[in-house]
Design goal:
The chain has 4 helices and 8 strands; from the N terminus they run E-H-E-E-E-H-E-H-E-E-E-H. It is α/β, with parallel strands linked by helices and about 150 residues long. It is globular and about 45 Å long.
């Protein structure tokens, strides 16, 4: 049976720029940076948080072998337009990290705001992907949280 999630893909437009963004600005560490299949092969670049050695993000430029040329171009366009949400980055102090990351030039789409699940700010990476930077509440009152949700119907 599945034991957990080890690696997930974040589509980026330039791996060198993404590597710099995720390490120098967000503070993640490089786990793997190698070429598979010889000099003209695919670059396998992964990063992760020091506190989570078993979880990695692979920073991939859309293209072969995973995507055909047409699909790769469509994915690059979606990434560049900023329509892909890549996930949630956790923190123990979202307001501190919001200020720190802003001082490093990270673009935020939303300042820290209180939500039923905690305090959240929304940032964008150098390719256009957006992430929720979230400080979770210690205890979530699910009845209260569901009551605060907007009914989309």
């Amino acid at each position: 049976m599945i034991k957990g999630i080890a690696i997930t893909t974040v589509w980026v437009l330039d791996q060198d720029r993404a590597k710099e963004f995720y390490t120098d600005k967000l503070g993640l560490e490089v786990r793997t940076d190698m070429t598979i299949g010889g000099d003209d092969g695919m670059r396998w670049l992964t990063v992760g948080a020091e506190a989570q050695p078993d979880v990695e993000l692979t920073l991939m430029v859309p293209g072969p072998p995973g995507l055909d040329a047409e699909s790769a171009e469509a994915m690059k366009e979606l990434v560049a337009r900023g329509v892909l949400g890549a996930g949630v980055l956790s923190t123990d102090d979202v307001r501190r990290d919001y200020e720190l990351l802003r001082s490093k030039g990270v673009e935020f789409l939303q300042e820290p705001q209180e939500r039923p699940y905690g305090t959240e700010a929304i940032l964008r990476d150098d390719s256009g992907n957006w992430f929720s930077l979230t400080q979770r509440r210690e205890r979530l009152d699910t009845e209260q949280a569901w009551g605060e949700c907007v009914d989309p119907m």
